Amino acid sequence: MAINQLTEIFTRTEDTRLATPGINWAMILFLIMIVVGLGLGASGFIVGHEAIYNNTREVPWGLLIATYAFWAITSTGLCIYAAISHLFGGTRMAIVSNRMVWMSIVCIFAAFATIGVEIASPHRMIFYNIMSPNPISNIWWMGTLYGIAVGCMIIEFFGIVTGLARIAVIIGTMGAFAEVLANSCLGGVFATLPARPYWYGGQLPIYFLTAAFLSGAAATILFNYLAYKLRGAEMSDAVKDGIKSAGKAMTLVLILYSVATFWRLIMYFVGGAELGRIAADALISGPLSLNFWVIEVCIGLLIPLILIILTRLQNIAMMAIAGFLILVGQFFARYDLVSAGLLVPGTLGWDNVPTYLDYVPSLIEWLVIGGSIGVVGFGFLIGERVFGKVFDQKEHH
Amino acid sequence: MDIKNLEKEKNEGIESLPSDERRKFLKIGLAVTGVFLGGTVLSLTSVSTAKGGNTDSVIPAEGQYPYPKHYSMIMRQNNCVDCEICMDACVETNHVPVGHGAWRTTIQERLTTVDGVEKREFRPILCNHCNRPPCVRVCPTRATYKDPETGIVVMNYKKCIGCKTCMAACPYNARYFNHDKYAIDKCNFCIDTRLAAGEKETACAAACPADVRVFGDLKDTSTEIYKLLHEPDKKIWVIRPECGALPNVFYMNA
Fold first, then answer.
1. What's the topology of domain B53-252?
2. Given CB atoms, is B140 within the 8 Å cutoff of chain A?
3. Smallest Cα distance from B2 to chain A, Å
4. How far is residue B192's CA from residue B221's CA, in Å, rounded to a whole number?
5. Could you report the per-residue pLDDT of A234-285, keeping only the tens digit for each?
6. Residue A328: CA count within 13 A, CB half-sphere
7. Model-level pTM?
8. With contacts defined as CB-CB under 8 Å, which chain B residues touch A350?
9. What is the DSSP string of B11-40?
10. Interface confidence (ipTM) of the complex
11. Contacts of A60 in chain B (CB under 8 A)
12. Is A380 among the domain residues?
């Protein structure tokens, strides 16, 4: 009976236009990336994490934590825009909000997959997070709230697919609240460590939330553009309006984020802790300067802004390119933030330690990142294939 | 209101103050107290564990040691000659694994120039068993905590999920990943290997031939560490005081 009902639902939601060999091959490719990347990451539980990752005592976090933060922040952004659209209805983005909910779930799973193979003993986490919680730990709140958020979003999506709009809106709003709070706690994980002056301070949680609004809008535009491109279908005017609304939000937050980045860095050069200034210098002229100037600033902020200004938010393809570049920039921004905080040794001046510690991600770390991209790519395609008709909203319900 | 005319007014005195006015005044007082009380209740660090000293000193304020036995260590830094016997004693006593940057205590070194003469300085370091430990605050599963009896920061290995946040949070690089236990590990002032057996000193302090490390209970005024720490006019410092962790490992020159 239940199987029959499920089959009936899937018949109603699936989009057979995507049942093409090309899409199937792409899905297989993403699956291979997942199996290879996350499989090698999981091998750390057998051979020891020290054998596959280049993290050290001095640099305990690196590429994987940055990637986790990137996907988690993107998920928050997608979830917030979807919730605002669902809750208030009036925004033009409502027409693409179901796809945003799905992609928010997919992105948070990519984040969980990455941190799942980064943490040394995740099995202990599942048990002791409940049995021995520390309510003043940001990590505890972050994990718990992201857990609640993903639960809410899955129920919300179930409500969307089965037509239970009321449940979808109520639970979806709760999920979005949990995502915002979790995002804030993720910022707090870094912001509340006085030992790392580059992270320490009240600005970082807001900076993370701003990044969520930026990445969320960029991802909304990119994924919607790809969804229509894959089908070879023309966007309806309503969808175009929705994407343009997302473009406006993206442009506004792009400017806010750039201002925040500017002041954040200036801060370190007017006084305060020496270790913070040295860390900021890693971005300005040190080992992370190429990442910062070329990728974070030029590719991630300036070029998208120029593209947006030149096309005046009228060209969807250009906006999708801008969105993609912003996401690339945001990924490197997370990496630079995590790295810069840890690269400066706390014992500088002693032991002839170099000004900047050496951390280069291992090949397996990069393959795990590939695995997380595989999760998002596969999640996107399977979502379009199985729930395509749900995403192809004619109007907002 | 014309202020010049005010002085010409007759003083009403407090006798004629209506009780409503008095009530209002009391209410303001209660509201202000409430705000402060709320602040105390909501504070993330409980006040009893945050005692650490006055603003111009790194030494805990006298008589305000939060733990029944308040263990700490003082280094007579200029006595250290980098013989590393303390490190060997620690490894042997506490079964510290070899490699992967594992150590519970180490000796740092730097070259300085004093009056044109190059001088080599050594500084032993270990976990500072802070009164406001950042590592304890960040641990999601309370795998690391302040021992309520001694104030020593200890590990419950089976609860450690290996998120490494405590490693990032520690100002002293005192934590490492123990691959044998598959959990974070650190110095625990030999609480399980020596103090539990009735020993009075940690392995490193007992082994030091130059009498650099002095370990003891700050609650006990007869201990050497208490006397050293409260010697008048002696300069005493801690590492990275700006982190506000209120460390319990102190440094001085002999």
1. Alpha-Beta Plaits (3.30.70)
2. yes
3. 46
4. 24
5. 999 999 999 999 999 999 999 999 999 999 999 999 988 899 999 999 999 9
6. 17
7. 0.89
8. 108-110, 123
9. P-TTTT--HHHHHHHHHHHHHHHHHHHHHH
10. 0.93
11. 164, 167-168, 177
12. yes
